[in-house]
Amino acid sequence: MALFYINRYLGDDESANSLNNKSRSQTLLQKLHEEAKSRQQHLGIKAGPTDEEERSSQGRDENGGEQSRKEKRRAKEETTNSETSRKKAKRMASQSGDIKKSGRNTDCRVLKSEKGDVGFSTKQICSAKVKGSSVRVKQKCKQKDQGTNVAETAAEPSDNEARSLDTSGEQSETREEKGNRKLEKAEPIGLKEQDGQGENQPPTAPKSNLTILKGFQKKKIHKVRRVLPQWLAKPMLVSKDIKQNLKAIEDVPGIDQKLLHKLRANGIHSFFPVQTEVIPALLESTKHGLTLGRGGYRPRDICVSAPTGSGKTLAFVIPVVQGLMNRVVCRVRALVVLPTKELAQQVYKIFSSYAEGTTLKVVIVAGQKALPAEQTSLVEYLSTKQAFFTEQGYTNSSEMIIDEADRMIDSMHQDWLNQVVKAVYQTGECSAPGILFQRTNPGACTAASHSRLQMPLQKVLFSATLTQDSEKLQQLALHQPQLFTSSYAPSEQGPHVIQSKHREAVGTIKTKYTLPEGLTEFYVPCHLNKKPLIILYFVLRMKFSRILCFTNSRGASHRLYLLLHAFGGIQVAEFSSRLSPNERRKTLKEFEQGKLQILISTDASARGIDVKDVMCVVNYDAPQFIRTYIHRVGRTARAGKAGLAFTLLLKVQEQRFLQMLRDTGSKELKKQLVRQEYLSLLIQRYEGALQVLQQVLKDEKRRKHH
Ligand SMILES: Nc1ncnc2c1ncn2[C@@H]1O[C@H](COP(=O)(O)OP(=O)(O)OP(=O)(O)O)[C@@H](O)[C@H]1O
Fold first, then answer.
1. Whether residue 344 is found in the same domain as residue 282
2. Which residues does the UniProt record annotate as the domain Helicase ATP-binding (predicted)?
3. 437, 463, 485: which is the final residue of a domain?
4. Domain for residue 60, yes or no?
5. Is the CB of 245 inside a 6 Å radius of any atom of ligand 1?
6. Residues 481, 620: one domain?
7. 610 lines ligand 1 (CB under 6 A)
8. Domain count of the chain?
9. Which pLDDT tens digit goes with each residue over 121-164?
C-alpha cells in the first residue's frame, strides 16, 4: 500500500523522473511547498492579504454570501482530507519502518517495466517505473558468501505523506542521500544504466529508469601461466637415448691425445649425448688458456639437466682436465662442490684418474663434520693451507662446478656460495695495480669493467633434477646462463635437432624430469606387515642380487637390516648415518664387489652414487618427493643399461604417489602383485626372525642407556 501511494505521487510528476536522485527529492519538496501555498491562496488563508484582496473579499461577502459559505465548506473538507492523509502518511511511515526492519528476510521484487518483465537478482539495486505511475524502490542487497540476500526497502513519501513529512524535509533528504551513497558504493562493481543514459545503451533504446548493476556473474578464472626466462624456455636439447646417440671420442675436437688414451683405457670409446653437448661448450671457455668466453668476454654460465647415469661426471671432468693440463704454475683453478662425502670421494677418484700423468694435482677436502660446517672448513682449509698446494687458496679458481646443483641450491641458506665467491675474489696479487688480469667481483657490465682483462669465475651446474624455478636459480647469480636439458616432449622434437651441429636453442621443456630409458618401474600394493616378506620374496624367490633397498629413516633401515639378518641365509648390510664414514666406505665397496645381495639404505646413498650393475632398486618406504624417487631409482639402469625399480605402496599411499609421478609427465607405473602362497611359505621362519629382532632391539636399548 505504501508503495502505491508513493507511486501515485511520483507518477504525477514526469519531470522528476528525469532528474537525478539527489535533486529530485529537493524538487519534490519544493513542489509540495508551492502546491500548499497555492491551496492556501485559493482558500484565502493567506497571512497579510493586500488591500485589493481585502476589498474584493469584502465585496464578495457583501455580494455573494452564499458562495463564500460554499467555499468555506470546501475548505473545511480539504482540511479534513488533509488530516486524514496525514494520518495515512503516519501509518505508512510506520509500515515503511516495518519493511526496513524485516528487510533482511525480504526478497527483492520482480518489477514490471514498460518494456516488459525485468527480473532483478537480489544482487541488484534498482529503481523502476510502473505503468504511468512512478515507483522508486531502493533496494540494497548485500551478497553474502553463498548468495544470501539481504534486502532493504525504503519508499519515497506519497503525496499526502510528503505533506505530512513536509516539516521533516531534511530527514527525507538524508535518506535519499544515504541511498545515493549506497548506489555510488555499488557502482564500481558493474555497469550502471540509469534513465537510458547507461554507457552501453544504444541511443535508440527506449528510455528506461532502471538501474541495473551488472558484473555479478561468475567470472572464469584464468590460470596463471608460468613465463620462463628465455634461457629456460629455449634450451639446448640433449638426447635421452644414450644408446642411440653416441659420438666417437676422437670426433669431439680439442681433446688431448693423452686424455683420449686414458678414456679408451677406461673402456670409453664414445661420448654419451650429454658429454657430446657439454664438453665442447666448456672447452670453448678454456681454450685460450684462461676461462674466457667468446671475443674474450666473460663466459656464459652453464646449467645441465640430464637423467641419472647419463655420464654427467665425465662431461665436466674431461674439459676441466683438458683446460688445465698444460699449466705450469700450480694454482687452484677449478673447484667442484658436492653435497656428500661419498660423492666427493667418487668424483675425486675420477679426477685423479684422468689427471694422472699430467702436472695437475687433485685435492679432496671432505671433513668428518656435517655439511654446513664442512663448507666453512672448505673455505678455511684452502685459505690456510695455500702454501701446501695452491699458494693462494682459490683466488685463482676460474671454474666452479656445482654437482647435484638442486641439492646445493636447497642449502643456499647456509651461505656456502657467498663464502666461496668471496674467497675467489678476495684481494690478491691478481687485483693489484699493474697486474694484467683483474680479479674483482664482475658486477654490472660496463665500459670500465671491460677496460682491463677479467679473470671471471664460470659457474657450471649439473643435476638430474635441476629446478626450473628461476627464482631459485637466481640465487646463484648466473651470468647469461645456457641450459642443456633432456627434459622435453619426444613427440615435438625429432632426434636430428639434438646433434651437436644444431647448436641453436630449439624446443621447449614439456616434462619436468627424465628417467633413464633402460629403467622399468613397478609398484607393489601391499599391507604394512607384509613388506618384509616381499623383500624376502625378491631375494629368495626372485633371486634378485645387488638390490639397493631404500627406507625413509635410519631407524627403519636398521630394523629391516636386523630382521633380514635374523632370517638368515641373506648377504645383507645397512648404509646410513648410523655408520662411521669408514664403515660406510667399506660397505659400499663390498656392495660394489658383489659381496652383498641387498643393501638397506637411507637416502644417504640415493644421490650420485655410482655402483656398477645394481640390478634393482626397492623403495621399501615410498619416497615423499618426486626428486627423491628419481635419484633413488636412478641408482640402477645407469650408462644405458637395464634396471628394475619396485615401490611398495600401502593402499592409502597409492593414489597420491601415482599422481605425483603422473604430474611430472613420467610413464605410468606397472602394477606387480605378489602371490600370497609364496609369502605363506616364508611366514614361519619370518615369525622366528621377528622374535629375534625384538630381543636384539631390547639389548641395543639397554646398551644405549648404560
Ligand atoms: N661415454 C661413456 N661410455 C661408457 N660409460 C660411461 C660413459 N660416460 C660415463 N660412463 C659411465 O656411466 C656411469 C654413470 O655416469 P655418471 O656417474 O657420470 O652419471 P651421472 O649422470 O652423473 O649420474 P647421477 O645423476 O646419478 O650422478 C658411470 O659408471 C660412468 O663410468
1. yes
2. 293-484
3. 485
4. no
5. no
6. no
7. yes
8. 2
9. 333 333 333 333 333 434 443 444 333 333 333 333 333 333 33
Q: Are residues 671 and 591 in the same domain?
A: yes
**Ligand 1 site, residue 638, Cβ cutoff 6 A:** yes
Give residues with Cβ within 8 angstroms of 213, minimum separation 6. Answer: 123, 124, 125, 186, 187, 189, 190, 191, 192
- Verify that 320 and 463 share a domain, yes or no: yes
Please indicate whether residue 310, judged by its CB atom, sits closer than 6 Å to ligand 1. yes
128 forms beta bridges with 135
Ligand 1 atom having least distance to the Cα of 612: 29
User: Which pairs with CB-CB distance under 8 Å and at least 24 residues apart come from 355-361?
Assistant: 355/321, 355/325, 356/262, 357/258, 357/262, 358/258, 358/321, 358/325, 359/325, 359/327, 359/328, 359/330, 360/321, 360/324, 360/325, 360/327, 361/330, 361/389
Ligand 1 centroid, distance to 640 Cα (angstroms): 9
What residues make up the domain containing 681? Answer: 519-703
Cα–Cα–Cα angle for 197, 201, 203, rounded to 5 degrees: 80
Q: Which atom of ligand 1 is nearest to the CA of 315?
A: 18
pLDDT level of residue 633 (50, 70, 90 thresholds) = very high
Predicted complex ipTM: 0.99
* Residue of 406, 610, 629 with the most ligand 1 atoms within 8 Å of its CB, for mutation: 610
Long-range (24+ apart) CB contacts under 8 A made by 185-189 are 186/125, 186/213, 187/213, 189/213, 189/215, 189/216
Same domain, 674 and 536: yes
H or E stretch at 6? helix 2-11
Q: Is the beta carbon of 308 within 6 A of some atom in ligand 1?
A: yes
85 CB under 6 A from ligand 1? no
pLDDT higher than threshold 70 for residue 388: no
Q: Is 464 in the pocket of ligand 1 (CB under 6 A)?
A: yes
Rounded Cα distance between 121 and 135, Å, is 18
Residue where a domain stops, chosen among 439, 465, 485: 485
- % of residues, the chain, pLDDT over 90: 35
C-alpha cell at 640: 644405458
Closest residue by CA, ligand 1 atom 31: 311
Q: How far apart are CA 161 and CA 177, in angstroms?
A: 19
Same domain, 416 and 560: no
Domain shared by 335 and 419, yes or no: yes
Q: Does the Cβ of 518 fall within 6 Å of ligand 1?
A: no
Q: Whose CA is nearest to atom 7 of ligand 1?
A: 311
| Residue 191 within a domain | no
The pLDDT tens digits for 250-305 are 999 999 999 999 999 999 999 999 999 999 999 987 766 555 555 666 788 999 99
Ligand 1 binding pocket includes 634 (Cβ within 6 Å): yes
CA 311–ligand 1 middle distance (angstroms): 3
- CA 333 – CA 601 distance, rounded (Å): 36
524 with 480, same domain: the answer is: no
114 is a domain residue: no
Ligand 1 centre to CA of 325 (Å) is: 22
Q: Which of 262, 277, 310 for a ligand 1 pocket mutation test, highest count of atoms within 8 Å of Cβ?
A: 310
DSSP 538: I
Does ligand 1 have an atom closer than 6 angstroms to the CB of 75? no
Residue nearest to atom 12 of ligand 1 (CA): 639
CATH number at 460 reads 3.40.50.300
